[in-house]
Amino acid sequence: MKTTLSVIKADVGSIAGHIKPSEALVESVKDCIERELGKLITDYYVSSTGDDVAILFSHTHGEGCEELHKLAWDAFICGTEKAKEQGLYGAGQDLLADAFSGNVKGLGPAVAEMEIEERKAEPFVLFTADKTDPGAYNLPLYLGFADPMHCSGLVLSPKISQGFKFVILDVEHTEADRIIELHTPEEAYDIAALLRDNERFVVSAVYSRATGQQAVAASTTRLHNIAGAYVGKDDPVMLVRCQGDFPATGEILSPYSIGHYVAGFMRGSHTGPLMPAKLGCTISFFDGPPVVSAAGFCIHNGKLTEPVDCFDHPYWDHIREKVSRKAFEIREQGFSGPAMLHYSELEYGGIVETMKRLESKFSC
Ligand code: F6R
Ligand code: MG
Ligand code: MG
């Protein structure tokens, strides 16, 4: 039997700015989905990371199922109504269309889906990030799947050492999906050449070369490419299958020790270190720092276990302190140089107006 895992997330309103959705909002999303349990869906899990609500569905209808996407859309509409009722900030923010039209992709919410043949034991991790964009997963995926400094299985396991296929999307190309498939280990440097540009090239999937099985599905939505204006950062979600023929859970988590600098943070316009945070975390300093949380599961016959919080361990407290220091250090230089994103990535139109106004004041 095949199982489909679909994670669909949106920011439809939060308390005190872009901090965290209310409990009532999250409950209203759950209530909407609960009605389809045992019918359209086999199981589900709803969580929040910063101001985003992510819905993980398990079902049997394959990727891009219209009814499933409609259920997610309706649930976010329910959440939006609750957000309006409570006067939450940014109610319905990520729902960019007035009505559902077949698939939530392109309508605002972020989506990652994969259809799998369940293994006897099927461990996987749901990553949800806030105040950043899909390129934030590029480096951890590269290191977790292609670098033996993090993935010792590349040295120790005959199946893992056969390498992986990376599917990489050019997210600037909005007319159609422009993708490239590259293989490790022989094309690792080509992969690095693309993935260094987090704002343009984004990993959308990874496959095992030993078995052909899909290991990763990641969201690739760039809201400003859809809306053509600032509508918030893209706060990506990702599913990663672990163990056996895939890297171990700990190998996948290992690169998050770096707290690498990503795009996002305040007004989606700055550079900040990605902090591995506990499930349900809020947002704080300078609308950040960018956070990622990791909920680990096993799934069996479509039924999910309870989540285990992969970053809730004393080790990660030490990392969080380091990441806080990195956040503080880059914030010390305010708007200068790499602390603020390149002009083309700035999420606010105001600076464009300023530049236009100043243009006429230049002497030649
Ligand atoms: C939202 C975000 C925040 C906002 C900032 C200003 O995803 O990243 O940093 O950009 O709080 O919010 P507005 O423009 O809604 O007042
Ligand atoms: Mg937001
Ligand atoms: Mg968000």
Per-chain topology:
Elements: E1 2-10, H1 23-34, E2 43-49, E3 52-59, H2 66-86, E4 110-117, E5 123-130, H3 138-146, H4 153-156, E6 164-170, E7 179-183, H5 188-195, E8 201-208, E9 214-218, H6 223-227, E10 237-241, H7 249-253, E11 261-264, E12 270-273, E13 275-276, E14 291-300, E15 303-304, E16 308-309, H8 314-331, H9 350-359
Parallel strand pairs: 13-14
Antiparallel strand pairs: 1-3, 1-4, 2-3, 5-10, 5-14, 6-7, 6-8, 8-9, 9-10, 11-12, 14-15, 14-16
Helix pairs in contact: 1-2, 3-5
This protein binds fructose -6-phosphate and magnesium ion (MG) (2 copies).
Structure description:
This protein folds into two domains: 117 residues, Alpha-Beta Plaits (2-Layer Sandwich), CATH 3.30.70; 231 residues, no CATH class. The protein is built from nine helices and 16 strands. A hairpin with a 5-residue loop joins strand 11 and strand 12. Helix 1 packs antiparallel against helix 2 and helix 3 runs antiparallel to helix 5. The longest helix has 21 residues. The protein is globular, with a radius of gyration of 20 Å. Bound molecules: fructose -6-phosphate and magnesium ion (2 copies). Fructose -6-phosphate binds next to loops.
Question: In short, what is this structure?
Answer:
The protein has 364 residues and is an alpha+beta fold. It has helices at 23-34, 66-86, 138-146, 153-156, 188-195, 223-227, 249-253, 314-331, 350-359, and strands at 2-10, 43-49, 52-59, 110-117, 123-130, 164-170, 179-183, 201-208, 214-218, 237-241, 261-264, 270-273, 275-276, 291-300, 303-304, 308-309.
